[in-house]
Design brief:
By secondary structure, the protein is α/β, with parallel strands linked by helices. About 40% of the residues lie in helices and about 15% in strands. The longest helix has 25 residues. About 40% of the residues are buried. The chain binds zinc ion (ZN). The site of zinc ion has 5 residues, from loops.
Length: about 325
């Protein structure tokens, strides 16, 4: 049993759950024809039922907080790690990236921006370059973001080739699927250092099976290589502020304290599309002041105790530790 054996659990839990159910397929086909407000109202009434049903495991699933055996701890003795990610869903999000980056720089943070390569917008090269120059990371978010990526094994394989093309072209090493669909086996076909399409607990997602850990873990490919899975562990902004209509960050604070106490990975996904920079929210946006307050809270409460870094750094750290452990094990075998 080693630190990374949780990977195999994660994989087997998720294995073969990706035959897209008929109802879900119909939903994504019909989705463009259903007005946003109607879709949101349907989701809200469903969410109220889920809140009651999963009160014991969301936002905190106590079972997800166990430190895996052999976990090496964070670099420089840091208590926990914090990673900020952004999925850019549409033109509105694209427009707001630079402003969001400015806000983070002002408070002393850097995040990763995940762009959809062949979706409803084109990501300007200049935007990617300027974000990278300022210390932000670029990742790939799905391919078309239309719910088709996991439609079948063949569909995934076909789209994976295009995704790998964009990973190389953008110099990106991280991936996240649209709608957080995930199959850790299929994802082995991507040329990635990490994936971040899973979560410790999130019953509100269309594929709601969580990996039930707040620690990164290793997924091995057949050839012995692999990638690191980075589950998101703080509720997504859309879930809290649009779906559940929270007007404060109490849930983020509570979960952050719990993650910090257990020394796990605090990873959040905030969508630039949903931010109201004038702090006058609409049905599909929330005040940017909430995200700002979260960043200020982390900085003032945890400061240097928190390893705030890019997703790729956490993945590299975990991958390196893993290969060192493997090498040490080999040396012992050779000596014996
Ligand atoms: Zn998305």
């Amino acid at each position: 049993m080693n630190a990374m054996s949780v990977a195999d659990r994660g994989v087997s839990n998720l294995h073969d759950r990706n035959r897209t159910p008929l109802l879900r397929r119909m939903y994504y086909r019909m989705k463009p024809m259903i007005p946003w407000a109607v879709r949101m109202e349907l989701r809200r009434s469903h969410a109220r039922r889920l809140l009651r049903r999963f009160a014991a495991s969301w936002p905190i699933d106590p079972a997800a907080g166990h430190t895996p055996a052999g976990w090496p701890g964070w670099p420089q003795g840091k208590q926990f790690a914090l990673v900020l990610t952004h999925d850019v869903e549409g033109p509105r999000g694209l427009e707001q990236c630079a402003r969001l980056a400015e806000l983070e720089i002002r408070i002393g943070f850097r995040s990763s921006f995940n762009f959809v390569p062949e979706g409803v917008y084109t990501t300007p090269d200049a935007l990617r370059a300027s974000l990278e120059e300022q210390g932000f990371e670029i990742g790939v978010h799905d391919l078309h973001h239309d719910g088709s990526l996991y439609r079948s094994r063949a569909a995934f394989r076909f789209q994976a080739r295009r995704i790998n093309h964009y990973l190389a072209a953008w110099g990106a090493v991280g991936f996240r699927s649209g709608f957080m669909f995930h199959n850790l086996h299929w994802l082995k076909e991507l040329d990635i250092t990490y994936d971040t399409s899973t979560f410790d607990t999130d019953p509100f997602e269309p594929q709601p099976d969580g990996v039930r850990t707040i620690f990164p873990f290793w997924v091995t490919r057949a050839d012995g290589s692999g990638y690191v899975e980075l589950p998101y562990t703080l509720p997504q902004d859309g879930t809290l502020f649009l779906l559940l209509r929270h007007t404060n960050i109490a849930v983020w604070k509570r979960k952050l304290d719990w993650l910090a106490a257990r020394g796990g990975l605090a990873l959040v996904n905030v969508h630039p599309d949903y931010l109201a920079f004038d702090n006058r929210p609409s049905a599909c946006t929330y005040p940017v002041a909430l995200y700002e307050a979260f960043l200020e809270h982390v900085a003032s409460r945890y400061g240097n105790r928190c390893w705030h870094t890019q997703a790729r750094d956490v993945a590299t750290y975990v991958a390196t530790r893993r290969s060192r452990r493997a090498a040490a094990a080999l040396a012992v075998e050779a000596a014996g």
